[in-house]
Structure formats: C-alpha cells, structure tokens
Amino acid sequence: MKIRAAKILRCLPAGFVLLGLLGLFGPARGGAQTTDLDTRVKAFLESHDWGMGDMNVPSVDGRTLHEIILKNKYTRALEIGTSTGHSGIWIAWALSKTGGKLTTIDIDEGRHREALENFKAAGLSHVIDARLGDAHEIVPALAGPFDFVFSDADKDWYTNYLKAVLPKLVEGGCFTTHNVSMGRGRRGGGSGGYMDYLLGLPELETTVDNRGNGLAISYKKAK
Predict the structure, then answer these.
(1) Longest C-alpha distance within the chain, in Å?
(2) What does residue 4 show for φ and ψ, rounded to 5 degrees?
C-alpha cells in the first residue's frame, strides 16, 4: 500500500494555510474575538523554550494536532508520552474550544512534574488529566472511547499502543504517531516496522506529514 502525497490535504484544514500566512498563531478562527485563555496560551507558547532535549514536538507538528482536533470537533483525546507538555498544550488548547478533555501519560517523574507546571502556567489544567506511570500498563486498561490519539512514547512499543487503542477509537477518529516516515518506519528507526503494520490495517486511512519530525495521521474508516 502506498501513501499518496495529495491525501495529506485531507488532514490539513484549509484554515491551516491562512494560519501560516498570518503568522505563528493568527487571529481566532472565524473572526471571533480572542478569549483570555487564547491570549494566555499564545503568550506561554511564544515565551517558553521547548528544547529538543525534553523530547517535545516542533511547533509545526503541534499546530497540526491542534488544527486536526478543531476541524473534526474531537473531544476525547489521549496522548501517550507527555514529556514536558508542549504537544499536550496544543492538544488541550484545541479541546478547550471543543469542550473536550485530554488524558496524557508519562513514566518520567521529573518530566511529569514539569508538564503539570506548564499546563498550569498555560491555563489548561482544567482540561487535562495528566497521569504518571507506565503506559505499557495504563494504555490497555483505559476504557475509552477516544476520538483523537497522539502516540509519542517509546518507539519500539508503537505497534502495541496502536493494538491496544484501535478498538477504542471511534469511527472517524484520528490516531497520530510522531517520529515516523516511510523511510524511517519501514527500515526500523526505533519503530520496529511499525509503518508496515500501520499501512496494512484496512480500517485506517493513513498519510504522513514530513514538514516537522514525521507525523503519521490515520483516520478510522466507517464500517
């Protein structure tokens, strides 16, 4: 099965292009007034140094996650691999507009504590359930359902995370995976042939956005 580059347009809403032309964030969607929370989140994201040493996503990938959630009005999100909270802030910011909630998991106590501080500083703690623990155990035990998932933890466990979550992903829901591409995924790259497995699932339609660090975007088809 091949990934057609044109399909990536399905995953990037039209507003994304306008967002880029207007700057990093641009005005609120639909010309609506910017809320106090929007102002607070923007200021925090612009002022914070999201070092790669913390294994956080680049801003381009964070914006993509944010826009996917807004476009599809997702409300039940799961993040596997919190790090210090950069991606979680983008996700939770979108969920604050859709009335949703994010469950995010990390095993590292230091990163977990820093993420909690960052969520609070950004004003998003009220939409985030941040859990400290082993995602190998927590993820299979989650009841779900979910309509949006971001997988960004240990790469050699990617296939297991997908197997655990896919039955709990609603039709039309989106499963996103970080740090993969056709080249890296198919040749290993720490993901253990994950892309071969992902692309072989008939219930998912997958594209890859390579503008950042490689983001697989998979929508669950209706039966």
Answers:
(1) 47
(2) -90, 125
